[in-house]
Amino acid sequence: MSSSANSLQPEDIYVPIRSVWMLQLYASQSFVDGHISSSTVEDAGVELPELIGTMLCDAVEKRFRRELSIGFTLTERNITRVRGRINMYETARRQLLEKGLIACEFNELTINSEVNQFLRYALEYAAQLLSSVDSDASARRCKVLSRRLSQMGISEPKSTVFPHSRLSPADKKPVAVARLLLEFAVPTRGDVALSLFSRKHFTQHEIRKLFEKALFGLFQYHLCPLGWKVSSGEWLYWNAQQVPKELPSMQTDIILRSPVGEISVIDAKFTHMLIENRVGNESLKSPHLYQLYAYLRSQEILGEEWKTAKGIMLYASSGRNQQDETISFLLDGHPVAFASVGLETSIREFRQKVLHLVAPNLEFPQEEPHDIP
Predict the structure, then answer these.
(1) Average pLDDT, stretch 3-10?
(2) What is d(CA 299, CA 307) in angstroms, rounded to the nearest whole number?
(3) How confident is the model over 110-123, as pLDDT tens digits?
(4) Phi, psi dihedral angles at 108 (to 5 degrees)
(5) Per-residue pLDDT at 190
(6) In 3-state terms, the chain is what percent helix, strand and coil (to 5)?
(7) DSSP code of 228?
(8) DSSP readout, 241-258?
């Protein structure tokens, strides 16, 4: 077996930045929760960072019209009456009682909340990001909104992590959109053969996990409102007695359950679907076939729905060997499909191909419902 058939070349591993953005979008909580719809993204006609940056500006401007949320901040102050918790050490050390004062620690209402600080940081980051992708008008808009927050007393955040405080309903969308924008991978500029990411360099394993999470988000958004159940990371157990500890465990990537009880087990791969055998012919990879076979056959004891469960091995393809190919067959009563989906395609085409693979008989409306049960 040739080594070239087993290894991925750099041009196969490095996914175009637009494809990474697409996967990050589908994997985001903003998309799953319906803050960003498929039609909004597919019909935008602009790059994803510019679209998400514009949506962030729209969401923040809407908060201005309804007034920004107010939060609590921990304050330490010497005051004339007890409020909150007394700091006995400071009170005694500074002899405050003789001055008619007492040192207290208490929560105080403020507009300079953790959420508003996070939005200011996101706007400042968005301005730099959009300038780097030549979206000057959107970048200026972000700067204006960030400056307005600063003038209102919103300081720079002490930490750039996602706010831990409970979000009000009005804050959920702007914070979710801001989080997505901050997570976008950004290529560095310069004459380099392969793009590097200024925020993060993705390994092949991380890209595969991102592909898996994007599929999960896509299925949740489009299938859950239609009565499907979508689960991720579900464990399967062997039909064996006195199971030895050396027996490998089985954790699935995604399991779909249709409204009528049909089960589809999906495993995501970031590699070539076919491999060249010793005589030069292409064939499916044996470990992947055995993996899917074990998933399906080991669960048949659980009920009739598992005896006809469908198995799908879904490959993300990119680079010079990108292809869209599906190989379907019946394996001991189980419908099985090995499918390769190209990442260097439009967002609409990617969505249509993936959904058609798992639910070929379903027709999705133009504006899909997205209330996740």
Answers:
(1) 47
(2) 8
(3) 898 889 999 999 99
(4) -130, 135
(5) 43
(6) 45, 20, 35
(7) -
(8) SS--TTSPPEE-SEEEE-
